[in-house]
Specification:
Number of domains: 2
Strand order of the largest sheet: 1-2-3
Number of strands: 3
Number of helices: 3
Distance between the termini: 55 Å
Radius of gyration: 22 Å
Strand content: 15-25%
Oligomer: single chain
Order of helices and strands: EHEEHH
Helix content: 55-70%
Length: 87
């Protein structure tokens, strides 16, 4: 369940930091009852960035497959690359 906190809770930075690290998910901050910002630990941010990068690579591969319709065997392609570049 997402954590939603008022902006006044940001006064206690140590508690907010501990909460970010303990929950390992974004904490939504409200201002005057409306969403204002999101706070998270660096580890959580890095994980989200890695996931987004992986998702983008998968989407690109799926688009390429849809465009070309050609699949490659990874072992064969790596073997060919090694032969070409290593000798």
């Amino acid at each position: 369940m997402p954590q939603i906190r008022p902006i006044t809770d940001m006064r206690n930075t140590t508690e907010m930091s501990n909460l970010c690290h303990a929950k390992r998910e974004p904490i939504f901050i409200t201002k005057n009852g409306y969403g204002d910002m999101v706070v998270m630990s660096i580890e959580t941010y890095d994980e989200m960035l890695d996931t987004a990068t992986t998702d983008a690579a998968i989407a690109e591969a799926e688009q390429e497959l849809g465009r070309d319709g050609k699949l490659y065997d990874a072992r064969e392609e790596l073997r060919a690359l090694r032969g070409k570049h290593i000798g």
